[in-house]
Amino acid sequence: xxxxxxxxxxxxxxxxxxxxxxxxxxxxxxxxxxxxxxxxxxxxxxxxxxxxxxxxxxxxxxxxxxxxxxxxxxxxxxxxxxxxxxxxxxxxxxxxxxxxxxxxxxxxxxxxxxxxxxxxxxxxxxxxxxxxxxxxxxxxxxxxxxxxxxxxx
Length: 153
Description:
By secondary structure, this protein is an all-alpha fold. 75% of the residues lie in helices and 0% in strands.
């Protein structure tokens, strides 16, 4: 396996944090939409045949659905916290001579900015390096991360 493949596998592994956070965010948005649907007022349509239904049943079903989604979010938050803990421990135990490599991976994959990866510009400013140097460190760190933790998977 060449270094580009190693880096790609490590990047996919670390990117799972972002995807879990995005999933949590989408579920939270779904809850907001359901609350709006329950509390929203809709106009009466006189051009359709009227079928009497129970509004209470609809509201009750929606509130049950909201509770189920909230339970799912709580489970996903627990998974996210555990996964972040594992990755932080892995980053802190990486066998590297240059701590900056571990810091680049932390800044890119753990220290997300509004559920998105921090830009190379943001990372370079916070670490005091050029973007080019940050990208170089990033690739080297991904290869070392792969060799240290993902090679036997």
